[in-house]
Design goal:
Layout (H helix, E strand, L loop, with lengths): L9 H21 L9 H15 L17 E4 L18 E7 L3 E3 L2 E2 L4
Antiparallel strand pairs: 1-2, 2-3, 2-4
Helix pairs in contact: 1-2
GO molecular function: metalloaminopeptidase activity
Protein name: Metallopeptidase family M24
InterPro entries: Creatinase/aminopeptidase-like, Pept_M24
Length: 114
């Protein structure tokens, strides 16, 4: 069965670039706050406030299939899309906050060198 590849228009590519720019901006804002002792839940609120208040956009995750938070967080053994919680990060943990805007964008951050 032959599969076709749908080519994206210049407008589609522009939207994808804008989504990536918005996601990168949120990750740059939250990065310095990813430190030992902070919970992923504490990272969620500033992300929400930045997305809504500064960017003037809507968090894509909130309410999607019942998802309750703005960001998705993966800590250590969580593969992906974990729900932010009150559990505090400790030294040597890895966190991956994600911000969805049509496309997912994420990076990983160690709490401290082990």
């Amino acid at each position: 069965m032959a599969r076709t590849i749908a080519l994206k228009s210049a407008q589609d590519l522009g939207k994808a670039r804008e989504a990536g720019r918005l996601a990168a901006e949120v990750l740059a804002m939250i990065g310095p706050r990813v430190v030992p002792g902070v919970s992923t839940e504490a990272l969620d609120r500033p992300c929400h406030e930045h997305i809504v208040g500064v960017q003037g956009t809507v968090p894509a995750n909130v309410g999607y299939l019942g998802y309750p938070k703005t960001i998705l967080t993966s800590v250590n053994h969580v593969v992906c899309h974990g729900i932010p919680s009150a559990r505090r990060r400790t030294r040597c943990t890895i966190a991956t906050p994600e911000r969805a805007c049509g496309w997912s964008r994420a990076w990983s951050s160690p709490s401290n060198p082990c």
